Structure formats: structure tokens, C-alpha cells
Amino acid sequence: MKTIALFNPNSGSVSADGGERLRAALETAGIRGAEIIQTDGDDFVGQLKSVAAQAPDLFVVWGGDGTLKGALETVGQATPNLLLLPGGTMNLLTKSIHGEKAWDQIVKDVIASPKRMMLPAGKANDELFFCALLAGAPAHFADARESLRRGDLMKAATEAKFAIDTLNNLQLDARYGDGYGAEAGRLPRTSIVGAVVGSLTQEGKGMEVAALASPTTGGALNVVWTSFFADWRSAPGMTVVPAMSMEIENCDGGDIPVIVDGEHIEAGSKVHVTFVEDAAQCLTAA
Asked: Around 108, how many Cα atoms within 13 Å sit in the side-chain half-sphere?
């Protein structure tokens, strides 16, 4: 059985010796001879395409939500046998798949008793996301958060200032469709618009779209730091509705800052968001 295991040492909780630790965990679970590779920071997409071309019987990925998203989009088209391991800060996707288990316990459990599961996703223009989309000021606040995490305080301060300017000046108009229980198909005009899918929704399925009216800096930071994972629904001014689609438009016609599963995308002045019921497959423990 051909096994390729990829780790991202730049993810929030993957150490520099991640390759050795990953190999040891696989061998403990009975997988020997795996090809262990580190993410290519210069050409990650090309690296994933190369893995996909090899059509591995098992592809193990240890990293944050953005790393896992890339694997699902690219290698997931070649093999459904993807084992996704939590290595980021929030680990929203892997929590929805494996619960709160540690990454090495997940390896042990899934190798011992694997089963395939289908994952839903949202699609922002041509980009899939398996957890959350954030449009507007939160995309810049997320940059500041990552700089702060890396200890670059000056860069974090500059990015935070830019984010606050975006918060106060950007106006996004968002319309949604095919939901239920909503009186209108328009969200409040704001600088913070988002969408969550699957287990992050209140019903644990489908897609929810949200907007924070008259957002404050504190409110924006709460959305970014929790990544729609805590009690954000109860925040003052938050509107949340189920929907199968959403259109986001910059009222001034400029580009909209957007992050999907923690990764920036080029979105332009309009973003078309749709829900995809069966977007990709991965492995979990039976």
C-alpha cells in the first residue's frame, strides 16, 4: 500500500520534528514505509498536484484548516482515502470529523478501523471551504492575529490599524437565497459578512450566512478569534440565517478581502457563495 504523509511545520501545533513524529505514529499504527514530506511553501498547490498524480492508497495530512482544505480540493480528487490530522490553531475541520481526539490517537483509531465519510462545503466563486468564510474586515484582523502569533508585534500593529480602517469604511451588501424561516433575503449592510457549513451551523448541517451590523473592533475581533466557533450567534447586531447561496458585493466596487478556512483568496468586487452537499471524502474511525 502506497502511503504519503504530509506535514506543515508552520501550522499552529505542528513542531519542527513533525516528520519524525508522524512517521513514528504511523509505524505504531502498523503503516511502515510511508513517504514523509514537508509542505512546500513556494508551490504548495503544485506539490499537491504531484501527490495526486501518484494516486496514493492513503494520504495523511497534518496541518491547519488551510492545509487540509488544499489537500481535500486537490488530492481528494484522486483518492478518497485522506486522513486529516489536527495541526492548526482552531482545527475546526478535524473536530467535526474526529471530535477532540489528539492527532496521534486519530492515526491509531482510523488505521485500526477506517471508514469513509462525505464532507459538505461552501464554494466562494471557485474556492471550496469546509468550515468558514469571512469577508471584509475580519480578513485583515486575521492577518494581525497571525503576525501576533508569530511574535511580529510591529507588523501586527500595522495590520490591525488597516483592519480597523476597513471595519469603519468598507460597506458590503449581502443577499441570500433558498433558506428557510427568514423574512427577507438581504443581510444588514456591514463590513463583516460570513458563512459556515456543516457541523458549525446550528443544525449541524447545511450552510448559514451571517452579518454583524454596526460592528465594533471588539465585535470583529471576537468573530476572528473564535472563527465562528463560540457564542458568536448571540453577539449584539448579529444576523444569522440558513441559506443555500449568498451574493456579497462591495458597494464601492473595490476588491473584497476574503478568507476561507483561514486562507486568503482573490475574490474581486463580488463573491458568489453556494452550498455543496457532497464536496469531498475523507477517513474517520468506524
From this structure: 8
